[in-house]
Structure formats: C-alpha cells, structure tokens
Amino acid sequence: MSEEKKHLWALGGAVGIALAQGGPLPEVLKRCTNAVIEHLGASATCIWTSHSPTQVLTLSAISGRPTAPEDEAGENSIVNFIAETRQPLSGQLRLVSGRLKSVSGKQAEGFAKAEAEKKGRGNRTMGYFSGYPLVVEDRLVGVLGLYHPIPLTNDARNMLEWVANSITIAIDRAWAHEALLKRREGLLFRLANQIRNSLDLNTILETAVHEIRNLLVIDRCHFLWYLPHPETPSLMVTHEARNADLPSLLSDCPPQHIDFLAMKIQNLEVVRVDDVERETTLDENTHSLLTSMGMTSQLLLPLETRSGQLGAVVCSHCSGPRPWRDSEVELLEAVVNQLAIAIDQAELYAQTHAAALAAQTQAQQLSEALHNLKQTQAQLVQSEKMSSLGQMVAGVAHEINNPINFIYGNITYAKSYIGDILSVLNLYQKFYPEPLNELKEQLEEVDIEFIHEDLPRILSSMEMGAERIHQIVLSLRNFSRLDEADKKFVDIHEGLENTLLILHSRLKSKGTNSGIEIIKKYGEVPKIECYAGQMNQVFMNILSNAIDTLENRPEPRIIMICTELVDGQGQPLLALSKSFPRPANLWVRIKDNGPGMTEEVKRRLFDPFFTTKPVGKGTGLGLSISYQIVVEKHGGKLECFSEIGKGSEFLISIPV
User: Hey, how many other C-beta atoms are within 10 angstroms of the C-beta on 574?
Assistant: First the structure.
C-alpha cells in the first residue's frame, strides 16, 4: 500500500472517530478539520455551516491559516460560489490585483493577465484550494474548504468527498437532535406554563395528551388512572387525543385485561412495544387487548404522585410498527415527571381552594351574623329609646293630665261664683251709691271697675289655656300609644299632626329667625291598618332630619307634607271610596328645600350607624329603623329622591 493511501485511510478513520465521539457540533467539526490537516498535509481546513432560511454561511470550524487578512473578500466569494452552484471546486489559488481567485487552466492565466494589465499590479500563485458543498436532500448545510500547497490526487478527492458526505450527515443529525431537544423543551415549557396558568387537572392532562400526540406524530395518546382495590383493581382512561377515525377509549379497562398493565404501573416499569405481533414479553390477555383495539405498537410510562396515586401516559400507533427511540422515551419520562408535579400542585391548589372557600363561607356567615347582630342591637337601642321616650311621654302626660283636669273642671264653677260675686257687688253699688270714705278710698285703689271688666277675660284665658294643655296631653298619649302594640286602623293625618305638635318648638320663629314653614297637602285617604306608634316614629325621624337640615339654611325654609292614595302603577285615585281598585297604596311624601345629597350619601342612607351629622348629634339609627319599620313591618317602601342643590324628598308607601 502506497504512503498516500495509508494517509487517506488514516484520514477516513480519524474523521469517523471524530464523528463517533459526539459532543457539541463545533467541537466535532473542529476534530474533523484537525484530522484533514494532520493526514492530508493541508495548510488550512475550514467548515462553513448554513442553518437559516437565507442560507448565509458562517465559519464554524477552522484549522491552520488559510489566507492573509487582506484576502478575506476573495475567500468569501469562492465559498459563496460553491454554495450557489453546489458543485465541488478545485484549482489554483492566485492573488490577482489584491484579491483571491480560484480558477484552473487557461481561464486563470487569462483572468490574471487581464487584471494585471488593467490595474498594473502583479499576480502570484498562493497554492491550491478545494471546496465541497455539504448537501443533504437538496438542502445546503455547509461548505468544506481546503488550502493545500500541491494539487490533490483523484484518490484524495474521492476520500474528501466521503469526508464531506460524512460531515454532512453528522451536521444534519446534530441539527435534528437539536430540533428534537427544542421541541422537547417547548413541550415541557407549554406544560409548565399550563400548570402555572390553570392549576386545573383536567386542563393539564388534556393539554398533555394532545401535545404529546402532535409532537410524536402518533395515532393515539391517552392518560389512565390506576385505581387500587384489595380484590379487583381497575384502570380508567380519563383523557385522550386520537385520530378522528379511531374509536374512543374513555372508559374502564376490562378487568380480564388489566393484570399485566396494572403490575407494570404498580412497579413503575416502562412498557415499550415496537411491534405487537413480534413482541414476546406480552401475556396473552394483554396481546389480545391491544390487538382488539387495533394497536400495533405501544409505549406506556407510569407515574406516581406524592399522595400515592398511580397513573400512566400511554402512546400507541395503529398503522403498523412504530419503533420508539431512546430520545422519545427520555422526552416522555420528563413529561411524566412534569405531570406528576402538576397533579400534586393541582391537588394542593384544590385543597387550598376548598379551605379558602370554607374560610370565605365562614367569613360570610360571620359577616351576616355581625350584620344581623348590629341590626338587632340597633333595633334594641332604638326600641329601648322609643320605649323609654314613650313611657316618659305617657308619664308626663298622665301627671299633667290630673292637675289640668282639676283646673279645667273647676274653671266653670269659678266663673259661676265670680259672676255671682260681681252681681252682688253691682247690687251694693246700686242701693248704696255713697259708700263710707274708707270704703271709697279702697274701691278707688283696687279699681273695681277694671276688675269687673278684666276678671271674666282672665277666666276665659285660663279656660283656653287649660284646653290647650289638654290637647297637648292627648297628642302626647296618642304619639306614645303604649296601649296599641297591635295593628289597628288609624288616621295617618292624626299621627302627622301629633308629630308636628311635638316638634312645634323647633318649627316656630326665634328672634330674627322666621322659623320653618310647614305646607300640608293632605289628600282624601282612608284609615290604614298599621302599627301606629312605629309609624309615628318614622314621621318623627324623617321630620327631625329635615329640620336639622334646614336650621342653618337661609330663608325660605319649607317642609312640604303630601298624602295621597295611588293605584298599583302609582296613579292617583281621586275619589275616596270603599270600592277603590286594588292594590292601592297610601303615599306620604315629606320634602324639604335643603341642600340635597350626593349619590354616595343616598347609597348608604339606610345603613345602620351611618350618619352625616357631627359627632355626638346623630346615632345613624333613625333612618335604618324607619326603613325596617316601613319595609319589613308593613311590607311597604321607603325611598329617597335627592339632588345637590334641589332638596330631598322621602316617599313612604304603605299598602292599603
């Protein structure tokens, strides 16, 4: 064997070893260029690769020194020419007018001569260049280039073509493996992203089976749970992705076919069947099950969660044998590990969500209990307040009523007696016109004539005052209504008048203040069945708030009270009759010309303990209690209509 062939055989062996050792692609290519330098005597060896749609060449490995720095433009033009033509190129490498040119024979000489004459520069031979395109399935993956001092023999060219083909296959495989890793990373990323986004187990498993089927390009992928049982464990398929023409497997696996698969899942063993017909490790039942389902190959990867649940991802093919590569099994094992984490997180999320829901429900119940407690407390406070007020009013009325009855009952007798005395005095004056001097002086001093005229007027005034006190006492008793705890038919106007009478001192003028004007527009309304004392309480709360609002306002200060009978649509009923249409409602509208309210105040107006009054002046219970009395006690409505600058109006609607 000649020395050249020994070197060529050594080159082939060195390149084969360099490719077989594997590792990152740049390191593999670097070992190949070193082998060419070592065994072929080249001055330099380069490998360019193209891994983009534009097929731009990038220098990936270099050994030796190919050219001077000023010759890089020529070098690139040669490599690009090989890439474009995808044909090997071999010839002299010359420096012509400062640029490298690789041509052969007379073409090179003519080209060099023309360039020298044109620019007046010399040209010299730089050696030889050989380039080989790296093409796989009509796809350019790179260029192999050699700089060598002497021409290559045919044997050397043949060996370099073999080296170029081997490097081409190695580059293609490396890129395919890289693409597979990227797809694997993409799948794992999507699954992890799905776990973070949803934490819903059904969504995660559904996404997993579809992503795995699309990635491996298989006929079916499904997920099954292993349900342990001391006597008869079972397998249940819960999620699947399949070709449209295949039947669904979403059901329990037949008990007679689960022994083999259940044992593998329990032991966390991978089941890898490339061809069902040629597989010898399957038991008869499992072989029968796979055949009956039309499966020609299958890959099963079990999983176990932290809580001890067992399941499996099953990939199957139905259109012939399907060899499962080690890289695919590694990918699915990573997916299965991710799914196990997902299931754990989903269970933890479900438990946390359940605990949060229970806590939220309990908090809501506590909030409702607190709200009810506040309402009950408010009702108790207001009831106690009104009860104490009612008892006080009733007691005052009773205590005043006794002496005023005594005074009022004796005024009649006093008038009669005084009339008799005055008559006797008149008779004395008639029959004894000239009294004694001492008596005459006394009569002039007391002005008996003025007493005679003014005394009847004093008695009449006392009678009127006693009558007024009697009316006030009666109003106080009617307002308190301690003896009327049940519903009864009452005149609503009487309750309004009694309330206004009690508030009279706050309505009348004081000094330069002209007071608050009350405008009454009472309609013809029937007596209504209600809790009279509680309705008086509602009138008292609303009118007191209106007075508070108007006290510091400029004149005119007006409160208007209107009553009317309306039908179910709110249309007034003009005539008071026993035959008025049903349903009907009694409306009491109390309106003031105060500053009005904001939307925020209106929204919270009937909330317990909400008040806009200064601290110490309002409790925030009046309107809340009023709302409960009207709505809950009487089945009516209490509404407020108000705008800033346009006053406020309260509408009390009571069913008749």
Answer: 11
How many whole angstroms from its chain centre is CA 282?
52
* Alpha carbons 403 and 399: distance in angstroms, whole number: 7
| DSSP state for residue 530 in the 8-state scheme | E
Q: How many CA atoms lie within 13 A of 640 on its CB side?
A: 25
**Separation of alpha carbons 287 and 196, rounded Å:** 39
314 φ, ψ to 5°? -120, 120
Find out whether 612 and 624 touch, Cβ atoms under 8 Å: no
Rounded-to-integer distance, Cα 479 and Cα 484, Å: 10
Structure tokens belonging to residue 237: 């398929």
For residue 299, the model assigns a pLDDT of 92
Residue stretches of the chain with pLDDT short of 50: 68-71, 73, 95-124, 482-483
The set of residues, in sequence order, having a beta carbon less than 8 Å from that of 198 and lying 6+ positions away, is 204
**pLDDT given for residue 114 in this prediction:** 39
Whether the Cβ atoms of residue 301 and residue 285 lie closer than 8 Å to each other? no
Helix/strand/coil for 542: helix
Q: What is the pLDDT of residue 219?
A: 92
Query: In the Cβ-directed half-sphere of 432, how many Cα atoms lie within 13 Å?
Result: 9
Give, in degrees to the nearest 5, the angle at Cα 93 between 90 and 97. 140
User: Which SS3 state, helix, strand or coil, does residue 415 take?
Assistant: helix
Selection from 227, 246, 249 nearest residue 238 by Cα: 249
Residue of 415, 381, 389 lying closest to 628 (CA atoms): 381
572: CB partners within 8 A, 6+ apart: 523, 564, 565, 566
Amino acid at 216: L
